[in-house]
Amino acid sequence: MPALHLLHIDASARPGVSGIHPHGSHTRRLTRHLVDRWRAVRPADRVIHRDLSREPPSPVTAEWIAAAFTPPERRDAGMNAYLAESDRLIEELRRADLVVIGVPMYNFGVPATLKAWIDNVVRVGATFGFDRARAEGPYWPMLPAGKRLVILSSRGDAGYDPGGRLESLNLVERSITMPMSYVGLTETYCIAIEYDEFADDRLSASIAKAEGAVDALVQKLTAEPVEVSPGTMSDEVATP
Ligand SMILES: Cc1cc2nc3c(=O)[nH]c(=O)nc-3n(C[C@H](O)[C@H](O)[C@H](O)COP(=O)(O)O)c2cc1C
Fold first, then answer.
1. Flavodoxin-like fold domain spans which residues (predicted)?
2. What pLDDT is recorded for position 209?
């Protein structure tokens, strides 16, 4: 089987890792745990790490919109320059077979840096198509099929999972799965740590449970045959 590409994204503003650094990030702990476990099973796979807190993607601007909505053949050099960052982020996503996103809950939603990443990679004519006259419907995903998405989250309170007391307040997972399914990532797995604000035994139990769930997920995903898509290539990928 050819080497797979993992895109490892962290969005926590906390640079440290929980369990290693004081006041470290739980989502960084979970993404690192997943990648370490994955590498233990499949050491030849390639990992790109994108730290959205260290290198925040640019937000959408008027110039970006004008460039993105101009057909590629009519773009001038300035427009291409406005889209260069988006092009780079899209290329990383296009190559990825597995996308792992570490995402803290900030005010019930995702950090602004992750929203900026989503806005850069969900782009008309690049990752989804739009045609008013299309009989099957005006939108279609343009990324290669077969990618898998893992969302690893953490929250201060508890009860945000489906069926939980605070489920209706949780805007995190849906605000990622919705736009990602739009560009073609429909196979999604979500695992979260809760009780960070309480910092008691419930937090320790939640961390242990989440890490166990990550272990089981890695076992499942590495055991399954992977549909080789055009995103699976054997060439070298530069880390940013
Ligand atoms: C700016 C900010 C906003 C937060 N908003 C919420 C919230 O709405 N609900 C919640 O349960 N926890 C909230 N928290 C707590 C975080 O979700 C929690 O600390 C989580 O572990 C952060 O992820 P990290 O450990 O990867 O940094 C917030 C924390 C920060 C810093």
1. 21-209
2. 98
